[in-house]
Inverse folding.
């Protein structure tokens, strides 16, 4: 691979302009409502800078039956492996794309804070997936990103466009090593009328990576988007997800399974926007925190006056698995229409003592009983994820994280007893 | 030959004493019925023996084949051979019967393939829908299905001593017969299951004949006898014991003026 990627002239200009805006921008602060409860005040955005291609290497984790696999290392495309199964679906970089400059950030919108400017100043190998009219691709397209450089910054960016009546599934794996680094991903999903997009990201970042991820989806008439986040890694890892129902009968689902341990903070901000009649959105976020981990969920449903017949649901459930863990949940509604059915629910609770006793009374050891209950808690949402090939892996990630946490707690108890 | 020995067991919930000195021995192959009015502490007895959280044992002991159970976590009591069929089996979303029994088998060092075959056999024998084996435990199950589920587990886990807490509640006649016949079969033959059946009504005994009947009220066993005691209770109700229940809330000094032993002796039914 070459050390410097070559970008289209418009993109070079775009990056330079954003770099200027970033240096002028004020750092975000916890006093801003959108950053409340976050750790933004502890992160120095200027400490991180882009990394030359070829610095970090790691094997990709193959997904069986993938239609294509894109490998991105340190923010640079390392390879794109297209199978015959990809058919008429195209995968290109934004510099190659005929409408690249119009597409970039068309759904996310113009940058409104320093982090978005930082992304735009360093955005490079944006992946654009175009699914032509009427084409169905059930086998997933896989994007595998990784980096491991102290002070490194990567800004992955994925755009999925499903034309009328088409369907596609995209899976992204985001990993990083143990180095202190930052990743600012953006994902834009555009479903034209009658199209269907299934999207899932597995956030398996290293323990010293700070992450600011932004998803934006537009769902057209009678179209469906299911967008999922499995968030397990990172130091401070934030995901903002916006889904907009812009065509009559649009359906948008946001899903998440998250598990926080150690000192990490997982932070989610969601926006379900209904701007067309007879639209539906369902949100189910389920998470667990243990150790001294923290989670934040803040969600807003907005129903405009143009959206009669809206059905919108928002559910956030949290399991607190240790006394020092902390989960914060704030659901919100903003409705300018009378003809709607909306509900929101949020809970923060511990493992149910009666359920644990039931399992124990049949000879299941305490730790195994907790693992069964935690797995069972997550099974509901993992089952709804649109990428079948990774469901077992994600469930195993949770089992392994819980087992490691319980082993650590037992070790603490033992050492506490020795004192 | 196994033996569950409960000796002078006292337990509280919060500051309230619920068990006030229960003594009872259940041996392999024996069926003991504990009968008593609502609110007498019958279910508490089953919970304390099996280690359900929320109770404090303030005195006495419970041993299974000489091993003291009260210090053990609930799962080790189960591993030692104790089983509880619950009055209201807990719904456990996301965990199937098979997943639970697999985990239990692993802990017990049993081969899961054999356990899986046993689950199918037990389900068949008792009329438990095999589709439910993979479904979340007790979620959306009818009363009859829940009790059949408990009985399947009893059959698979093959305990030494089973405590059946109101296993007859919420059962139609067919389910009742299926469940009690299965338990009765386990008390015979090789298994020689010992049973402590807690119940309110005598109808449980149509298929599961008790060797010993104990009247439980106000936190202690008030009287013990053979199957004929259940007949007598069916005729007279718990009226004779209800005063004792009502005494429960009065100051300690007025509690049971006859003394527990004296009362039981007066009926000439006291065990031993």
């Amino acid at each position: 691979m070459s050390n410097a990627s070559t970008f289209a002239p418009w993109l070079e200009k775009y990056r330079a302009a954003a770099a200027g805006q970033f240096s002028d921008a004020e750092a975000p602060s916890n006093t801003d409502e959108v950053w409340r409860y976050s750790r933004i005040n502890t992160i120095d955005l200027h400490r991180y800078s882009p990394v030359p291609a070829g610095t970090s290497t790691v094997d990709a984790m193959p997904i069986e039956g993938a239609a294509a696999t894109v490998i991105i290392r340190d923010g640079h495309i390392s390879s794109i492996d297209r199978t015959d199964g990809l058919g008429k679906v195209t995968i290109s970089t934004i510099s190659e794309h005929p409408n690249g400059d119009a597409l970039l950030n068309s759904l996310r919108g113009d940058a409104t804070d320093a982090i978005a400017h930082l992304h735009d100043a360093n955005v490079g190998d944006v992946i654009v997936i175009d699914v032509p009219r009427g084409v169905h691709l059930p086998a997933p397209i896989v994007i595998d990103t990784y980096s491991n450089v102290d002070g490194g910054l990567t800004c992955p960016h994925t755009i999925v466009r499903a034309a009328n009546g088409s369907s596609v599934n995209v899976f992204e794996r985001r990993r990083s090593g143990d180095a202190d680094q930052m990743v600012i991903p953006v994902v834009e999903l555009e479903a034209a009328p009658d199209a269907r997009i299934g999207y899932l990201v597995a956030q398996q970042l290293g323990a010293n990576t700070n992450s600011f991820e932004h998803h934006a989806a537009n769902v057209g008439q009678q179209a469906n988007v299911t967008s999922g986040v499995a968030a397990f890694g990172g130091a401070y890892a934030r995901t903002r997800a916006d889904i907009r129902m812009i065509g009559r009968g649009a359906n948008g689902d946001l899903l998440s399974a998250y598990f926080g341990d150690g000192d990490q903070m997982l932070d989610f901000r969601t926006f379900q926007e209904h701007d067309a009649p007879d639209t539906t959105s369902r949100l189910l976020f389920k998470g667990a925190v243990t150790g001294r981990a923290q989670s934040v969920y803040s969600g807003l449903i907005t129903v405009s006056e143009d959206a009669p017949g809206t059905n919108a649901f928002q559910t956030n459930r949290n399991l607190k698995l240790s006394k020092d863990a902390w989960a914060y949940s704030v659901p919100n509604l903003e409705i300018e229409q009378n003809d709607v059915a909306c509900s929101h629910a949020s809970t923060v609770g511990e493992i149910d003592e009666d359920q644990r006793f039931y399992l124990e009374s049949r000879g299941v050891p305490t730790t195994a009983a907790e693992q069964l209950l935690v797995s069972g808690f997550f099974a509901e949402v993992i089952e709804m994820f649109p990428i079948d090939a990774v469901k077992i892996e994600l469930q195993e990630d949770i089992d392994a994280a819980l087992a490691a946490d319980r082993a650590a707690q037992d070790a603490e108890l033992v050492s506490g007893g020795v004192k | 030959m196994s033996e569950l020995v409960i000796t002078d067991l006292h337990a509280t919930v919060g500051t309230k004493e619920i068990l006030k000195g229960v003594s009872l021995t259940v041996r392999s192959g024996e069926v003991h019925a504990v009968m008593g009015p609502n609110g007498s502490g019958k279910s508490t007895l089953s919970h304390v023996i099996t280690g359900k959280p929320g109770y404090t044992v303030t005195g006495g002991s419970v041993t299974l084949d000489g091993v003291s159970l009260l210090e053990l976590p609930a799962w080790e009591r189960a591993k030692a051979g104790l089983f509880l069929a619950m009055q209201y089996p807990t719904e456990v979303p996301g965990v199937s019967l098979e997943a639970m029994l697999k985990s239990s088998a692993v802990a017990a060092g049993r081969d899961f393939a054999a356990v899986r075959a046993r689950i199918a056999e037990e389900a068949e024998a008792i009329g438990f829908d095999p589709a439910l084996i993979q479904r979340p435990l007790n979620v959306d199950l009818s009363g009859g299905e829940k009790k059949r589920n408990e009985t399947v587990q009893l059959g698979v886990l093959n305990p030494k001593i089973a405590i059946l807490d109101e296993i007859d509640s919420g059962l139609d006649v067919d389910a009742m017969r299926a469940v009690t016949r299965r338990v009765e079969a386990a008390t015979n033959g090789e298994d020689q299951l010992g049973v402590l059946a807690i119940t309110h009504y005598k109808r449980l005994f149509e298929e599961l004949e008790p060797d010993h009947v104990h009247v439980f009220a106000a936190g202690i066993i008030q009287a013990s006898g053979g199957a004929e005691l259940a007949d007598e209770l069916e005729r007279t109700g718990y009226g004779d014991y209800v005063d004792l229940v009502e005494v429960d809330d009065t100051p300690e000094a007025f509690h049971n003026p006859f003394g527990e032993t004296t009362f039981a002796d007066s009926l000439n039914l006291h065990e031993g």
Residues 245-272 of chain B have pLDDT under 50 and may be disordered. The two ends of chain B are 20 Å apart (CA to CA).
